[in-house]
Amino acid sequence: MMAAQTYAALRYEATETGSPFARDVISGLIARPKRLPPKYFYDEAGAQLFEEITALPEYYPTRCELAILRERAADIARFFPEGSALVEFGSGSSRKVRILLEAAPTIAAYVPVDISSEMLSQEAETLRRDHPQLAVLPVEADFTQPFILPAEVAGSARTGFFPGSTIGNFEPHEACAFLRHAGRMLGGGASLIIGVDLVKDASILHAAYNDAAGVTARFNLNLLARINRELDGDFDLASFSHKAFYNSVRQRIEMHLVSKQRQKVKVAGRVIEFRVGETIHTENSYKYTLEMFGALARGSGWTPVSVWTDAGGNFSIYALVNQLP
Ligand code: AVI
Hints:
By secondary structure, this protein is an alpha/beta fold.
């Protein structure tokens, strides 16, 4: 076993050199247990695979959230005051926001915030064409960190939109930090419309993250392919397998990549050793009860004023109002 001091030195060195991606990958792979941050799933291939996941018969969250948005669009539209700006955190494809834009002509500006400039400019272009009255003002940024809102919306009322239960991919303390940060970005009295996946029968959850077509497995393994492409890695994808299960104590789906054999892998000039069966923990997807999410929101400076669920009670959309000045 590596001496604590050597391990600490490795960690230190890894975080001092290279790109943020290289630093996060190396420090995650020398950690015990090994882990990789889920935000790195979404390179071009990963974003494409995620789009495929959203259309899978087993992956209920997207279908359920779209159903709520369509059914409750008029109720949700009340949270967009005349002349307001809609700020979407992590916009990706614009399928969901289009429903709100149709239902709430009171929205004067749309501010999609995303780390992927390519996706942002593509979606902005088609939205401008379809909504010529709307000011589309994309911001290329990591939405979990403070960013500058466009000057055009400085004096406008703002409503946030954070769909997809992406909040479930944060640890509960990170979810709380995100909600506080969103409150600061949107301002006192602002609203936030947020999608939250709900606790349910473990067999439904299991199927959603272990689809029969193997798309989620390819999505998970693409992280290793990305490391090979971008960090000069030599992961043999065939010697790792996808594993996803519901951890009922922590109320979360855990995704892992399991090493099928004892092996050494090179990444950014370093050698990482794997035991047989050793895993890299790649994602948590927390599921909430309505009570738990309500408490998390209240503890993070927001008051839940409305919540809508689909007919099966699988997914929820909350309207929160910022308590802070
Ligand atoms: C983006 N996020 C909410 C998805 C989820 O369900 O946690 C990511 C995902 N991972 C596997 N399938 C989908």
